[in-house]
Write a structure and sequence with these properties.
Length: 205
Amino acid sequence: MDKLKNSGFYKLKFFITPQEFKSLLQLFEQRQAQFYRTNADRTAYDYDQVYEAYQTFYQYFTAGEKRNDVHAFFVYSISVASNQESSGFFVRNEGVSFPYHGQWAEEELPCIMLSFPKGVQVNLEDEKGKYYIYEDIRDHMPLTYAFFDEIRDSIQKIAKPLRFSAQDTNAMKVQKPSVRISHDAMHDLSQSWRFSKYGLVIQGK
């Protein structure tokens, strides 16, 4: 039996404006989700604090001039409980790498990744001893998976795949990361110092 079947994560990668992010937060608020910092104390944060943190993150990456006074990061574990189910998501900022004259650029473009485990670890035992397998989380936590699907649908309604051209050695190559970006976020990002420094061009405005 393949014990790693159903291992891994469902992932959503996106970059949207703070106002659009607030509409996502409202979905979490409806489910009474709790946001925690991923530290030893599991510090809890309310929705206003999470929104402000996202706003700071967004403004850092859409600024017209480089800022050294802010360390932009956005990392939380999210606890969701519905009826008999208790599960969670993990959200963090990630970088989108791109080529620049034959090598990877120093800086990266931003995105947020929301992840949700594909499986639930089930401990078993046979004549050879104890072992575990991962069973499909959709069977164990259908309500939580349906919520993840709801978030995905919301993001797909306001954001489309990020496509941009980067300076390569011989020509402008279109980059196709697995990231969705909203129209307004695309406009703001295209005005940022990263775009002007590296000569990036948004495709399909």
